[in-house]
Amino acid sequence: MAETRSSSDGANKEFGGVVKHEQIHGREVNVENVALADAQARSKQNPWSARSMQLYSFCLVATLNSCINGYDGMVLGNINSMQPFLDYFGLPKGGGSQTGIFFSIYNIGGIVATPFVGPMVDMWGRRWGMVIGAALIVLGSLVQGASQGRAQFIVARFILGFGVNISASAGPAYVVEIAPPSWRGAVTGVYNTFWFMGAIPASWVTYGTGLHLPNSDNCWRIPLYLQCVFSGFVLIFSLLLPESPRWLFANDRHDEALAVLAKYHGEGDPNDPIVQLQIREFQEGISQDASDKKWWDYRELFNSRGNLWRILMVFLMAFIGQWSGNAVISYFMPFALEGAGVKDADTQRLLSALMTVVQFIFALVGASIVDRFGRRTLMFYGECMFTIYFAIITGLSSQTDPVTKNFPNKNMSNAVITFIYLFGVTYSITITPMQALYPVECLKYETRAKGMALNGLFIGVAGFYNLFVTSIAQVNIGWKYYYWFIAENALAAFLIFFIFVETKGRTLEQLDEVFNAPNPNKASRSKQHAEIEKGVGAVAA
After folding, report:
1. Which residues is 537 bridged to in the sheet?
2. Which of 115, 207, 212, 429 has its CA 20 to 30 A from that of 357?
3. For residue 364, what are the domain limits?
4. Which family does it belong to (predicted)?
């Protein structure tokens, strides 16, 4: 055998990075799963073919569900700094308990939806889940924009939250189940980056209406009406998508499942190695009579040690993703900037708008490298950086005047804004792609819809805390609230290092072996040695 040169190091081994060796014939490599690496090497799958372009367009439609969430997150934060909006509904400037309840009812809607989401998406399919969720969001957006009083606005927010939980469960499930194993991380990682594709237009629309209609109710009504645009696209185009091949197989429509896989994963060849590998794993791993056929049965989420570990990953990812400090950046960035010395509302909205563009660019960077560096690695280093950022922000903010909230000098104010932006960039790279990708990968098919509904519940609870508590904390304790983020991010880094499972490099069905191991964290970092040659497959092991 030819001499090899290893590019491995201790950090890569610890975090599950792929260790590559170059040689004259083929490629000697340590991989998470030899069967998948072998099938990938022999497959005719082409990421730039016409079939692949069609597949990307299907995933794009499902990914628009994430835009809906991003639009809401940014538009609410920005209209909350518009005086006509505050005056119309009698809300205090700067937040408080009234504002917290007003906005957080959205999360209550998502929580109430939880028992209905899983059964709906399991029984009627991922496509119809997206259609129903989008229809509710369109309704909620129109009612919200036309609101004549608090009660109507609160009802609209509830409907929106209910619909978003359905969409946020069906959308990622569809993408992860129809994406080829080779590109699953990048394609599904892009899902949550499209939060910014909703946030960017929301930022610029509210900036424009606030600038040109500063004294009119239309400054906030127009952005709220426009919230139905993305959901309208999902409502129309979801009906044109092929159904998830895993859902088809689980519902005894095997020929249709094979046809979808052959067309979009095998360039039309049902005997392509990637297609056949997945069909074999469907046969072994997807039960025809499991809990996904029983709308009332949630026991499979908790009936084994492996399933408990899976739902623990979903639970921790939901809370870590919501409690890392992003609530300060999105919903309450105008007040964070005011605390940093930026008092002008138009300037605050402009900085928020610029932030969303920067974050989107770096979120795409994160999605593009998630299969190279792994989920666990990126999240761990991200949480370590967040801890440092908030320690610095807290230290600088402690120097503000307790009455005026002003910094003693401009340099200190600029430093805080810089670290707010650094947080946004790092969060976009390390956490944003994971928020949909990681939980949906950790769940097996039979529990994916119900598990993602629970993910929506967990996010709803964490988000309710963010909106309700953060609103009050910003007013009452100001910068001292940032101590919470220092502690939370340090704890998150610890949990990711010792508990989180690495999901890259395996098909969804191959993750069963990892989660059923005595120590899933350790098992997920194990490697298998093989020599892989393109067009031939595994030629030595």
Report:
1. 533
2. 212
3. 50-286+305-515
4. Belongs to the major facilitator superfamily. Sugar transporter (TC 2.A.1.1) family.
Q: Which domain CATH number covers 425?
A: 1.20.1250.20
Structure tokens of 84? 């006509």
Q: Could you tell me which of 319, 311, 74 has the C-alpha nearest to residue 201?
A: 74
Report yes or no on 137 lying in a domain: yes
Instruction: Estimate to the nearest angstrom the gap between the alpha carbon of 333 and the chain centroid.
Output: 20
Q: What is the DSSP string of 254-298?
A: HHHHHHHHHHHHSTT-TT-HHHHHHHHHHHHH--TTSGGG-TT--
- The pair of structure tokens assigned to 526 is 């194990």
185 band by pLDDT with thresholds 50, 70 and 90: confident
Rounded distance, CA 487 to CA 474, Å? 18
φ, ψ for residue 528 (rounded to 5)? -115, 135
For the stretch 47-93, pLDDT in tens is 899 999 999 999 999 999 999 988 987 888 788 878 899 999 888 77
Instruction: Yes or no: say if 443 and 172 are a contact pair by the CB < 8 Å rule.
Output: no
Cα–Cα dist 532/30, whole Å: 10
Residue 539 carries which DSSP code? Answer: E
Tell me if 27 is assigned to some domain: no
SS3 at position 92: coil
Asked if residue 176 lies in contact with residue 188, where contact means CB atoms within 8 angstroms, the answer is yes
The DSSP code for 330 is T
CA-closest candidate to residue 159, choices 129, 136, 132, 135: 136
How many other CB atoms are there within 10 angstroms of residue 252's CB atom? 9
Poorest-pLDDT segment among 253-262, 337-346, 489-498: 337-346
330 touches 77 (CB < 8 A): yes
Q: Whose CA is closest to 138, among 233, 57, 241?
A: 233
In a domain, 37, yes or no: no
Is the CB of residue 507 less than 8 Å from the CB of residue 278?
A: yes
* Predicted TM-score (pTM) of this structure: 0.80
Count up the domains in the chain and report the number: 1
Torsion sign, CA atoms 420, 424, 425, 426:
positive
- Residues 6+ positions from 397 with CB-CB distance below 8 Å: 339, 340, 416, 478, 479, 482
Cα(79)–Cα(75) distance, rounded to whole angstroms?
Answer: 6
Residue 121, domain member (yes or no):
yes
Burial class of residue 389 in the structure, from the number of CB atoms within 10 Å of its CB (0-12 exposed, 13-18 middle, 19+ buried) = buried
